[in-house]
Write a structure and sequence with these properties.
By secondary structure, the chain is of the alpha/beta class. Helix content is 48%, strand content 13%. The strands form three sheets. The chain has an eight-stranded mixed beta sheet with strand order 1-12-2-11-6-3-5-4, sandwiched between helices. Strands 15-16-14-17-18-13-19 form a seven-stranded parallel beta sheet, sandwiched between helices. Strands 7-10-9-8 form a four-stranded antiparallel beta sheet.
Length: 669
């Protein structure tokens, strides 16, 4: 461990005796945690969090890997936070907080605080939709029929209705949308099962609890519902703690914007057809009208083109056949909306479908015809199309969420804590704080206690072609092979495109055995993320190929992961419609798009990918970056200086020596 940690731009609050005592040697945490060691970075961050809570301040806290940031915010939250919302990036992190970290800290502090876990409604069984699906008996596949039997049996035994309890039914099974609710198709207090509703029971527990653990999507869903004047999902609170806070600008963009997806429309089409066959079987013409929506969705997808792409609205509408197909879809939905509205009083289901059809028709019309000029509040928007292999999404996105999010900050006096391992670029938080309207927030950096100079090596091979070259991926694999031979596998290879990942797979299937790497080759898409990670840990000598989803939120400690290869610097594609519009706006406002946006974004993404390598004080490993711009371009210095302070080399011999020394240390032990 380095003799001292550097704390840059950190607040210096008064020492909080209770917080200090919790982390002290011989204190409550040390008595409960085997091998506990006091870390000055962890204590200093906890003091800053406590100060922000007690003063209802706003703190943006970057905590390097190994700092122990979770305890740094949980201890002051339990001591001083009052009612607290803790929001994380994923359901996995939610479960870790709720099942492990929070109970442990609560026990250590002997706190009486009550804890609740609240997930989005799609995670809870809906008794109304289960009953309706069972009654209709028309399911997409035999697998769905088998899964429905298991779900119906589980429904009688479960008290929480959390679908994570039912491991026998895969998370991605197509039955789940048929037995859970969405915000659109929930009947609310008009539902016959309202009293025993699992979603409502979970929300009631959250309202009564002192600490509520949610994820960012649920947090922003609540923000938007309150903006629309509807009942809030989450309790009014004194403190909001947003972990994995680097994700917030993108999540906020999604929730402050508007999306109409092929999946939403397909669900509407299915529900309209069910209504026409059951409740409205006596209405001539309605079955035909309802059955027109699904084919219209398919025709629009075909008109969008063969390949996945992202297009500004104007370019999408200019594609041959797209505008007529969109008009045809809108007309089909509008016809169903009109027909259903005449009979909406017959049942809550019919009223819900009629309302959803009306809203969908309005959203499509807005997307097609609304100007991308500033709205009445001065916010600029862009409308764009995201075409995927199986569907499409029509987006209306704000170019900036700063003012929109700032209104949430100013709405109620409370403490706000934003924390992640990757928020700053070289100690500068301005890119992040400007994005969320946090320009007056206190910022602090607490560096990792790990000794990266001894534990890690940064390797940039010589002679690699430019990253836009057709020869680049093969050259990266050529350079990585001797690294993988030296490490005997035990590696993540992270790619910025799926095409490069596929090309690497084709080569490595044959070449890994040829260099003596006998462990399994695991590839993103050939199994769930959870399954692949479990197999990777269990094998101990595997090589895993991944793209965006493996760049963050993945924790493999120990010898199983000793190499991370990143093929290119992760600059966002400038042809992405939303990014391109933001860069144009930045330039129009007198800024420098590359320096002010593209470079900071790439630095933060690179830190996330590199952060997979060293997870404990005993981990050792090599980070290989296959992009010559890191050393050849003037801005490369900004990027590598944002990484942990590893030794740097361009020689493969140094990599081989590094692993030779590692092997010798193991033999000595």
């Amino acid at each position: 461990m380095p003799p001292s940690a550097v704390i840059a731009n950190a607040p210096e609050p008064e020492n909080d005796a209770e917080v200090a005592a919790a982390f002290a040697a011989g204190g409550p945490l040390s008595r409960l945690l085997p091998g506990y060691r006091e870390r000055q970075q962890q204590v200093a961050m906890a003091q800053a969090v406590a100060h922000a809570i007690l003063t209802q301040g706003r703190l943006v806290a970057e905590a390097g890997t190994g700092t122990g940031k979770t305890f740094s915010y949980l201890v002051p939250a339990l001591l001083h936070g009052g009612k607290v919302i803790v929001s994380t990036g994923t359901k996995t992190l939610q479960d870790q907080l709720h099942e492990r970290d929070l109970p442990l800290v609560r026990e250590a502090l002997n706190s009486p605080a009550t804890i609740a876990l609240l997930k989005g409604r799609a995670n809870y069984l809906c008794l109304h939709h289960l009953e309706r699906t069972s009654r209709e008996g028309r399911l997409p596949s035999r697998d769905d029929a088998r899964h429905l039997v298991k779900i119906a049996s589980w429904a009688h035994a479960t008290t929480r209705g959390d679908r994570a309890e039912l491991g026998d039914v895969p998370e991605n099974a197509t039955i789940w949308p048929l037995v859970t609710s969405t915000r659109d198709n929930c009947l609310g207090s008009n539902c016959g099962h309202f009293r025993e509703c699992h979603v409502m029971q979970a929300r009631k527990e959250a309202l009564d609890a002192d600490i509520v653990v949610v994820n960012h999507h649920l947090f922003f869903a609540d923000v938007m519902l309150r903006d629309e004047g509807m009942a809030e999902l989450l309790p009014a609170c004194n403190t909001v703690i947003l972990d994995e806070a680097h994700q917030l600008p993108d999540t906020a963009t999604t929730f402050f914007g508007e999306q109409t997806t092929a999946g939403q429309l397909a669900e509407l089409a299915r529900d309209a057809e069910v209504a026409s066959r059951t409740s409205l079987s006596d209405v001539p013409g309605l079955p035909d009208a309802a059955s027109e929506i699904a084919p219209a969705i398919r025709r629009l997808r075909l008109a969008a083109g063969d390949l996945p792409t992202k297009l500004p609205r104007d370019l999408a509408l200019a594609r041959e056949g797209f505008a007529p197909a969109l008009d045809e879809l809108a007309a089909a939905i509008d016809r169903v909306s009109t027909e259903l509205s005449h009979f909406a009083e017959r049942s809550e289901d019919l009223a819900s479908v009629a309302s959803r059809a009306h809203d969908a028709a309005r959203r499509i019309a807005r997307w097609r015809d609304a100007a991308d000029a500033p709205d009445e509040e001065g916010e600029r928007w862009i409308r764009w199309l995201d075409v995927t292999l199986g569907g499409f999404q029509m987006h209306a996105s704000p170019l900036s969420v700063a003012n929109l999010f700032r209104r949430q900050l100013d709405a109620t006096a409370r403490a706000w804590i934003f924390t992640s391992a990757t928020l700053a670029v070289g100690g500068d938080f301005s890119h992040y704080t400007h994005a969320l309207g946090l320009d007056d927030a206190t910022t602090g950096t607490w560096e990792s206690p790990f000794d990266y100079g001894t534990q890690a090596l940064l390797y940039v091979p010589k002679g690699l072609p430019e990253p836009n070259s057709s020869a680049h991926t093969d050259a990266v694999i050529d350079a990585a092979l001797p690294v993988l031979a030296a490490s005997r596998g035990r590696a993540f290879l992270l790619f910025t495109t799926l095409r490069a990942l596929s090309q690497a797979r084709e080569r490595l299937v044959d070449e890994l055995p040829a260099i003596g790497v006998d462990g399994p080759l695991l590839v993103q898409g050939e199994g769930s993320k959870t399954e692949l990670l479990e197999r990777f840990r269990r094998a101990g000598d595997a090589v895993l190929l991944g793209s965006a989803s493996f760049w963050e939120g993945v924790d493999v400690a120990g010898d199983a992961l000793s190499v991370v290869v990143i093929d290119k610097l992760p600059f966002a594609p400038p042809d992405d419609p939303l990014i391109a519009a933001r860069l144009r706006q930045l330039k129009d406002d007198g800024g420098n798009p590359f320096r002010d946006w593209q470079l900071p974004q790439a630095a933060i993404a690179l830190k996330q990918g590199a952060g997979r390598l060293i997870r404990t004080e005993t981990d050792r490993g090599v980070l290989m970056i296959g992009d010559p711009r890191l050393v050849d371009k003037p801005y490369g210095k900004t990027l590598w200086r944002s990484l942990p302070p590893m030794k740097r080399t361009r020689e493969i011999a140094d990599v081989q020596d590094f692993f030779g020394a590692t092997d010798q240390e193991k033999e000595d032990r």
